[in-house]
Amino acid sequence: MIEKILSISGRPGLYRLVARGNNMLICENLADGHRVPALQRDRVLSLADIAMYSTDDEIPLNTIFRQAKELTGGKIAPVTIKDSAADQKAWFLKVFPNFDQDRVRASDIKKFIQWYNILIETGNDDFSDPEPEEKNETKA
């Protein structure tokens, strides 16, 4: 599920991949359902491809979303993007206690909170690991 949720650089919010066109992707804004094209010049990232730094390794974003969902009981985060950076960091420490505090910036935590709340509010809360693509092999 999370592999079809996209972040498009320069555009607020999150988008669902709807279709692929000639040299573009057709994406639907999760918040309002408005469809927009993502062209080749746009930087598009799947949430399944994003990870955050921990003290040991990089942890996939869906794993951290899962931890946040368990902590909140499937509800939106108790902090918002308008709260202070200290409040956001304190809550994020509960969700992901071993994040690398030198490499994960306050803006990263703010974006995580914003994305988590969007996903929960729109019902896109299946944070299971993406399934590996199966190769279709034909035998002659």
Summarize it.
The protein has 140 residues and is an alpha+beta fold. It has three helices and seven strands; from the N terminus they run βββββββααα.
How would the blueprint of this fold be written?
Layout: E1 5-8, E2 15-21, E3 24-29, E4 35-39, E5 44-46, E6 51-53, E7 58-60, H1 61-72, H2 85-95, H3 106-121
Antiparallel strand pairs: 1-2, 1-5, 2-3, 3-4, 6-7
Helix pairs in contact: 2-3
Model description:
The protein is α+β, with helices and mostly antiparallel strands. The chain has helices spanning 61-72, 85-95, 106-121; strands spanning 5-8, 15-21, 24-29, 35-39, 44-46, 51-53, 58-60. The strands form two sheets. A five-stranded antiparallel β-sheet has the order 4-3-2-1-5, with no helix packed on it. The radius of gyration is 16 Å and the shape is globular. The model has no long low-confidence stretch (mean pLDDT 90).
- Percent of residues in helices comes to 25-40%
Main structural class: alpha+beta
Instruction: Compute the number of helices.
Output: 3
Mean pLDDT: 90
Shape: globular
Distance between the termini: 34 Å
For the biggest β-sheet, the strand order reads 4-3-2-1-5
Note the main sheet.
5 strands, antiparallel
Low-confidence stretches: none
Calculate Rg over CA atoms: 16 Å
Strand content: 15-25%
Number of strands: 7
Order of helices and strands: EEEEEEEHHH
